[in-house]
Amino acid sequence: MGPLQFQLSGSPGDGPRSLTSALHERLRADILATRLLPGQKLHIAGLAKQFSVSLAAVREALSRLVADGLVQASDQRGFRVSPVSLADLADVTQTRIDIEGLALRRSIERGDDAWLASVKSAWADLKAVPYRYPDDPTVHYEEWVVRHRIFHRALVNACGSSWLLGFRDVLHEQSERYRRLAIRREVGKPRDVEAEHKAIVAAVVKRDADAAVRALSRHFGVTKEFVELAAPRIAEVSSST
């Protein structure tokens, strides 16, 4: 995979902290979107030259990505995009079911009418855009990805715990990377993602926490199954970086 061809937005007067944050966000987005692939080397000097930032800014941005679990650091090998594996996928999926299921259950118990309205609104916004590009079904429609993240966050926003939400957000990002890898190399039967989301929302509207958590768990489980189907193709791409 060749070097990324883009510049960081910002003015010449931006300080080192804002440039570091911009670089962190851009690299994070490219890892989640699989433009930077699992195992790919991240060269500090090359990134500094590419983005016209200092070596220190690159190191800080990469260190933040290490804390996010999206990059790995080694004294001998430098920085690399974190690898993927079926064992890690299983761990991420089950932990996300545990954490996000708890957050959803608490939100249903504690959420008011405004929270429920926000869930319905996020669901309506998500349905309004296509899941994939019509002319290339192996690529996500980017606005769908944004609205999908907002929808899943809306479901748990009323849980009342910043710790739960923080852990949930980290797990969502890890799951997102696997999901994006899978859709680019999807095999097998088509997936009805809208029906999966509809089942979750229907249970939430009824304030049936048990049914909502079951629907959410099935939704995450289907994602895991599709990633497992695409695993040989993912491994092939990852090994080539």
Automatic annotation (TrEMBL):
It comes from the Bacteria. Pfam families: FCD, GntR. Gene3D superfamilies: GntR ligand-binding domain-like, Winged helix-like DNA-binding domain superfamily/Winged helix DNA-binding domain. SUPFAM superfamilies: GntR ligand-binding domain-like (SSF48008), Winged helix' DNA-binding domain (SSF46785). Residues 17-84 form the HTH gntR-type domain. Keywords: DNA-binding, Transcription, Transcription regulation. GO terms for molecular function: DNA binding; DNA-binding transcription factor activity. InterPro entries: GntR_C, TF_FadR/GntR_C, Tscrpt_reg_HTH_GntR, WH-like_DNA-bd_sf, WH_DNA-bd_sf. PROSITE patterns: HTH_GNTR. This is GntR family transcriptional regulator. It comes from Bradyrhizobium neotropicale. The lineage of its organism: Bacteria, Pseudomonadati, Pseudomonadota, Alphaproteobacteria, Hyphomicrobiales.
